Automatic annotation (TrEMBL):
Coiled-coil ranges from the UniProt annotation: none
Pfam families: I-set
Residue ranges constituting the Ig-like domain according to the UniProt record: 41-128
Keyword vocabulary terms for this entry: Disulfide bond, Glycoprotein, Immunoglobulin domain, Membrane, Repeat
Cellular component terms (Gene Ontology): membrane
Gene3D superfamilies: Immunoglobulins
InterPro entries per the UniProt record, alphabetical: Ig-like_dom, Ig-like_dom_sf, Ig-like_fold, Ig_I-set, Ig_sub, Ig_sub2, Striated_Muscle_Regulatory
Protein name: CNTN1 protein
Record's subcellular location: Membrane
Organism: Mohoua ochrocephala
């Protein structure tokens, strides 16, 4: 196929490579530079979020994305406790930590550790639980005569520390109340 494969790269493999193809009609050349990238893990460009919010009973993914070459091995701790994969907790191959069925006991300081053959680094964030947002009064089906007005309600409960926004859509398309103000009207009840 004309391929060159290099197994278990070392810094000595770096340099300019040249492929030469020839037949009875002539010869052609193509050049390419091979750079060897190697660096210890660092969170300088992409630190972990300092505050992570998770809804009670929901699912949260805490990302851990350091720059590193080769790809690092990941481990996680909550406070001083080392975390392992279980029924509610999973460490993904990309370093992310997933927690399902979040409870108050899951709140705390989470640290991601990344290590490769060049070094190691870690980054920490705090997980806080919020009350899940729930629709307490959903819109009901309405039969209306053409030309009349129709009113639909939607009421939700939510964590008081968070803002709540209602978004209405028609057949999967979000309604733009500013552009369609002559047809749709939004009434917000506090």
């Amino acid at each position: 196929k004309g391929e060159l494969r290099i197994q278990s790269l070392t810094f000595d493999d770096a340099g300019m490579y040249q492929c030469i193809a020839e037949n009875m009609h002539g010869i052609i050349y193509a050049n390419a530079e091979l750079k060897i990238v190697a660096s210890p893990p660092t969170f300088e460009l992409n630190p972990m979020k300092k505050k992570i919010l998770a809804a009670k009973g929901g699912r949260v993914i805490i990302e851990c994305k350091p720059k590193a070459a080769p790809k690092p091995k990941f481990s996680w701790s909550k406070g001083t406790e080392l975390l392992v994969n279980g029924s509610r907790i999973r460490i993904w191959d990309d370093g992310s930590l997933e927690i399902i069925n979040v409870t108050k006991l899951d709140e705390g300081r989470y640290t991601c550790f990344a290590e490769n053959n060049r070094g190691k680094a870690n980054s920490t964030g705090v997980l806080e639980m919020t009350e899940a947002t729930r629709i307490t009064l959903a819109p009901l089906n309405v039969d209306v005569t053409v030309g009349e007005n129709a009113t639909m309600q939607c009421i939700a409960s939510h964590d008081p520390t968070l803002d709540l926004t209602f978004i209405w859509s028609l057949n999967g398309f979000v309604i733009d109340f500013e552009k369609e103000h002559e047809h749709y009207e939004r009434n917000v009840m506090v």
